[in-house]
Amino acid sequence: MNTGCDRTFYADQLECLDSVIESTDQIAAETFRIRVAAPTIAAKVVPGQFVMIRFTGRDAPLIGRALAVWDVIDDHSGTPWAIDLIFVRKGALTTPLASAPIGTAVSLWGPLGNGFSTTPCDRLVIAAGGVGQTPMLMLAKEALGQRHYGIGCEASADDGPRPNGWATEVGLVYGARSADLLAGVDDFQAVGIDVRLCTDDGSTGDQGRVPDRLITILDREAASRPDQRIRVVTCGPEIMMRKVAEGCLERGIACEVSMETPMACGIGICFSCVAMVRPSAEEAWDYKRTCVEGPVFEASQIVW
Question: In whole angstroms, what is the distance from residue 8 CA to residue 191 CA?
Answer without folding.
Answer: 33
